[in-house]
Write a structure and sequence with these properties.
Blueprint: H1 3-17, H2 21-31, H3 38-54, H4 58-66, H5 73-81, H6 85-93, E1 102-104, E2 112-114, H7 116-123, H8 126-134, H9 149-155, H10 159-166, E3 173-177, E4 185-189, H11 190-197
Antiparallel strand pairs: 1-2, 3-4
Keywords: ANK repeat, Repeat
Protein name: Ankyrin repeat protein
ANK repeats: 115-144
Length: 202
């Protein structure tokens, strides 16, 4: 990239932060030919997508995802932190795996892995929790310390989130993390779920 192209990449981040989609597309179209390979494309566009997520720039997010900017788990974590559930919807509409574990060092989980639903529940973001559940997130998935999204919400005193998650049907099984290579979850029988959570079928 020459100096002018580098300046345009900086400008793209600024425009992304205010969701000026017309100007963004105009600049992006000019610099796109310089993103000559996948590695360069990823390195230059992921920070722009990150900036758009942090600033609720929904139209820019949709455009970048349409351009196949990689949906990295840490970006979805940032979207989960966002108080606007529309960012989550953008990712889900573009095929992001709703139960992909994301790394987090945020309490109450130990440093390790948790699902987006854990994170949204722990923050008390009820609208985001509903979007995630509607998208297929499973509320009884356990993080490495054995906590579910309900536990995260309860520990942070988010009563409305706890009530919503507890109102969901238990289903036939729930998911739990495993260290098996290439596999994040393993199904656990309903009997185990009821025993471990104290839930009762009515």
């Amino acid at each position: 990239m020459d100096l002018d192209e580098l300046h345009q990449m900086v400008l793209l981040r600024e425009v992304a932060s205010v969701d000026n989609i017309e100007e963004f597309i105009s600049i992006f179209t000019q610099v796109q030919p310089s993103l000559i390979d996948n590695k360069t494309f990823e390195a230059e566009t992921i920070p722009i997508l990150h900036e758009a997520i942090r600033n609720d720039s929904f139209r820019v997010i949709d455009y970048l995802l349409d351009q196949k900017v990689p949906m990295r788990p840490f970006l979805f974590q940032e979207a989960t932190k966002n108080t606007s559930y529309r960012v989550l919807e953008s990712f889900l509409n573009h095929g992001f795996d709703i139960n992909t574990p994301i790394d987090t060092n945020n309490p109450p989980a130990i440093a390790g892995i948790a699902t987006p639903l854990h994170y949204a529940a722990g923050k008390g973001l009820l609208d985001s929790v509903k979007v995630l559940v509607d998208g297929g997130a499973w509320p009884y998935t356990k993080d490495p310390s054995g906590l579910t999204a309900i536990d995260w919400a309860q520990m942070n005193r988010h009563v409305s989130v706890v009530e919503f998650l507890r109102s969901l049907p238990a289903g036939d099984s729930f998911q739990q993390f495993t260290d098996a290579p290439g596999k994040h979850f393993t199904p656990v029988a309903l009997e185990t779920l009821l025993r471990e959570t104290g839930l009762k079928l009515v």
